[in-house]
Design goal:
Layout (H helix, E strand, L loop, with lengths): L12 H30 L4 H19 L3 H15 L3 H24 L1 H11 L4 H14 L3 H16 L3 H25 L3 H23 L12 H4 L2 H33 L3 H38 L2 H37 L3 H33 L3 H26 L1 H31 L1
Helix pairs in contact: 1-2, 1-8, 1-12, 2-6, 2-9, 3-4, 3-7, 3-11, 3-12, 4-7, 6-9, 7-9, 8-9, 11-15, 11-16, 12-13, 12-14, 13-14, 14-16, 15-16
């Protein structure tokens, strides 16, 4: 079921925006859910439940985050299969990612005792908070197979430019979660466990919704063509792509963790200010993700079709829209940064400290743009070994920058080192881009 004669579709501004905007809207719902979780539990009038939900959610998110490669790797591989006109491989790939997601989730369930034990050794809390958080995690962890499988479904849908379906899926999961939070916590009085049960149900119904959105793939027999599903070459390629992305993501996480640890040396006020300012980077990521995902899908299809002109145009058009978004973000942070800080932090000392470092936030969207866009381009092309290697180089540049700048300039030096790492990632991947185009021509 391969249509090698199909001409590549034109890469237009409308096509890029049709992919990007639903992702941006989908990302908007993510912080809303966290706010509702906190707000609903906060109605109990005690501090411990709020801390328990926050701690439990962070720990599980960190565990699930390890499997984020399934989203990225799936997008690149599925987009290339689509570009090749290979619908049979596209369907078989969906089966593979579902099997990996379910198996990974089952493994987490089996290992839940040591995982939860290790989490509380790394992030100790009061006895009351730990007891409540442990109960929360022991409920939510049973939806790990669904949560991780949804990563793969999301990547599969993005590859086909079906980001409206991704938006539907995200709104469904978050909507169910919010509604059940209110019923279980405020209505039934289940407290922290009610929040956990709400998320458990939302994630399993999210998987059901995801499968419904992929229903066309199950109408043809290719999804259960087991010889194709378990093809050794395809599995080896998938494993290589996913392992490269995992290593790259772990290096990126190491940069952010070291940033927080180094910031802690400057005292509680500076640490709190840095945490507030990091929200500006998260907002940047939520906005630029849409255009990076556009690059993933369109570049992947172009690589599958071996159409260098389409590859280059997809890279340029998506990046130009990303540039427009980054400039708007930078201007917004410059003009509205102080009011945003004052909303997020009521402590006057934290506000004053955060204001001192706001110029870095105004610079961040523009300086980080290339790293986001080239990530999308290289994911779509599945040039993941380049991503891994350039991330290693960028991490070393970050470490050297922090070593030189932090002693001399304090927290300003720390922010400079972080932004230098973004610039380094974009520049090193840009240096590898010509090789990417040559690989498509060969």
């Amino acid at each position: 079921m391969t249509d090698a004669t199909a001409a590549p579709r034109e890469i237009t501004n409308k096509r890029v925006l049709n992919i990007a905007l639903p992702i941006v809207l989908s990302n908007v719902t993510i912080p809303i859910l966290g706010a509702v979780d906190t707000g609903v539990v906060g109605q109990m009038g005690e501090a411990a439940p709020i801390g328990a939900v926050g701690l439990g959610a962070i720990v599980l998110s960190a565990i699930y985050w390890v499997f984020g490669f399934l989203r990225m790797g799936t997008t690149g591989l599925a987009a290339q299969a689509l570009g090749q006109g290979n619908r049979a491989e596209l369907a078989a790939l969906l089966t593979r990612v579902l099997m990996i997601g379910l198996a990974a989730g089952a493994t987490i369930i089996l290992l839940q005792v040591p995982l939860i034990w290790a989490a509380f050794r790394l992030a100790p809390a009061s006895a009351e908070v730990e007891t409540l958080a442990r109960g929360y995690m022991q409920i939510r962890i049973w939806s790990a197979p669904a949560a991780i499988a949804v990563f793969g479904i999301t990547g599969w849908l993005i590859a086909q430019e079906r980001t409206r379906a991704v938006l539907v899926l995200q709104v469904w999961m978050n909507g169910v979660n919010v509604a059940l939070n209110v019923v279980f916590v405020l209505g039934f009085g289940w407290g922290v466990n009610g929040v956990a049960f709400a998320t458990f149900i939302a994630e399993w119904t999210g998987l059901a919704m995801g499968l419904y959105l992929c229903r066309a793939a199950f109408r043809v027999p290719d999804w259960r063509d087991w010889a194709r599903v378990f093809d050794r070459i395809k599995l080896k390629r998938m494993a290589q792509v996913n392992s490269d992305i995992l290593i790259r993501s772990l290096l990126l996480e190491a940069i952010f963790l070291s940033f927080m640890f180094l910031g802690a040396d400057f005292g509680d006020v500076t640490l709190a200010a840095n945490q507030v300012l990091l929200q500006f980077l998260y907002i940047t990521a939520y906005a630029l993700d849409g255009f990076a995902f556009s690059a993933e899908a369109l570049v992947g299809q172009a690589v599958g079709a071996r159409a260098v002109a389409s590859l280059r145009r997809a890279s340029v058009v998506a990046s130009l829209w990303g540039l427009a978004a980054s400039v708007l973000l930078a201007a917004g942070f410059w003009v509205f940064g102080v009011p945003i800080v004052e909303v997020m932090a009521k402590n006057l000392e934290v506000q004053e400290a955060a204001r001192a470092y706001l110029p870095w936030m105004a610079a961040a969207p523009v300086l980080a743009l290339a790293s986001f866009m080239f990530d999308g381009i290289f994911i779509g092309a599945t040039r993941t070994s380049d991503m891994r290697n350039m991330m290693l180089v960028s991490a070393l540049i970050y470490a050297a920058s922090a070593f030189l700048l932090v002693p001399a300039f304090g927290n300003h030096g720390l922010w400079a080192a972080l932004l230098i790492s973004f610039v380094a990632r974009g520049a090193t991947l840009a240096a590898r881009y010509p090789a990417l185009e040559r690989s498509v021509r060969d």
